Amino acid sequence: MGAHLTRRNVLLAGLAAAAVPSLAACGDGVAEPSLAESADVRLPDYVPYRGVQPDLPGTKAGVLNGYYHYPKNPVKAAPDGPPAKGPSIDVMTLTYSPVPPPASKNPLWQRLSDSIGTTLNYEIVPVANYPVKFALTIAGGDLPDAMLVLPTAPRQPAMLNALFEDLSPYLSGSGVRRYPYLANIPTSSWSPMVLAGGLYGLPMPRANSGSAMFYRADIMKQKDLDPNPKSFKEFLQLCKDVSDPKHAKYANGDPAVTLYFILEMLHGANEWREQGGRFTWWLEESDILHQALDAMRQLVKAQTIHPDGFTTVGKFKDWFGNGQIAINYDGLTAWNQNLLQYGATNPKFEIDAMVAPGFDGGKGTHWAGNTNFAMLSLKKAPRERIEQLLHAFNLLASPFGTDLYLLRKYGVEGHDFAYKGVDPVLNTVGVTDTGLPTTFTTDAPQSIYFPQDAEPVRLQYEFQKRAVDVLVTNPAYGLYSETNTTLGNTMRQNIIEGPLKGYMRGAADWNDVQDAVKNWRRSGGDKMRHEFEQAWAAVRA
Prior knowledge:
The longest helix has 30 residues, at about 510-540. By secondary structure, the chain is of the alpha+beta class. The strands form six sheets. The chain has a five-stranded mixed β-sheet. Strands 10-7-11 form a three-stranded antiparallel β-sheet, with helices on both faces. Strand 14 (about 415-420) and strand 15 form a beta hairpin. The chain has helices at about 5-20, 20-25, 35-40, 105-115, 130-140, 155-165, 170, 180-185, 185-190, 215-220, 230-240, 255-265, 285-300, 315-320, 335-345, 385-395, 405-410, 430-435, 455-470, 480-505, 510-540, and strands spanning about 90-95, 120-125, 145-150, 195, 200, 200-205, 210-215, 270-275, 280, 325-330, 350-355, 365, 370-380, 415-420, 425, 470. Helix 13 crosses helix 20. The radius of gyration is 23 Å and the shape is globular.
């Protein structure tokens, strides 16, 4: 379910909701534009970058380009020199990593500023602190030139309209062609930028193939198991065969994401289902949900799920890496992360990913992820300043195969990385320096690339082809609902942590689940549905 797969997003939602009182002031006295005004906004043209040919070509359906090696002679991203000369640029954004060294001690940061043509000043905020920091900054009124706006930020239409620049005069339609690397961002990543009757940000594009059910290929080989089940029955047997409870070895860790995988088998809704303009929430599909929860009870009874998985937060990746669990649902970026982190100490470490089969055989489905993480919004400013900012951020979106992409992702040769053939491999200093959060400013479309080895590139590409073939999108993606923004994740997580997990363990019954869904409707679910349906109709008017 895209952005909802990790508990870190629930934390973000809760903190953002807590910040509502601080944010509310920005909209006082400002009329919010109508939905019809947003429907009239033209998205930027999509002009794919053709400067570097992939070894494994991506597809219009959403498979990413795959590259076995970095070009020996990277393309110059700014052949005419630094494009954004002028006053320094202040950016506030978040990081999931340790804060990198300051510019004075970080050659990557220094060269990035030199390449842009002005000093790039980052205010880097740890992710857990970002929603509150954002709220305080908005309320204080002293805004940086650009700042990351999370999807969970409340009162977005009023806030954006009052404080941030509408970029549609600069980027709508063919206007984006002045900024070719922004034009290289796929259309679907731009759709959440349309709010308040304008185009209010730059995307941070992500893969639409969402997450993956990873498995430890080395463990499967050791046990001589087929890691590609053709039904739930075969999946259950695989989980039994790979589990050894007496020695604290289990198939699965997190029961919530295991439930998602079973719902994919049953062709369940990816958060919402739309039919004739009417929206149905995933937990309202009673027959599908009941069958999936009963299947989860079978896994629990068979002792294939780690017993601490119902109460543990943040340990599943480590359990997967050290072999306590052999199957783990995670975001696609975890593929390379796992190989780097756990393959470094375990030379036998191998991973791959499965796509959900049909519950009783045949094809299952795969839930698409959100094709954008958040938006980078620009403070209102004169046209000349906005154009300078756009030229700078255009360079921060320079794609794979360019010298600026190499700099952003791998730093400076000799200081941050060394070449393995033609491929850059980070050292420990580089891991820290590349924590500069350019990924959370804007970025190029993601690519499949692993400098250390070409084989994971092939495996990831093959997985994405299988996933995209049965992809199910969330119809609410790109639509704005204030109720969903402020309450949605919290309400959803309360049901998961309460009656859903209770049912899986036999501590709650079906009536408890149904009562929780009814309460969701009364407490905001029906309002959320109505807001999405209104937005859906407006876009198609």
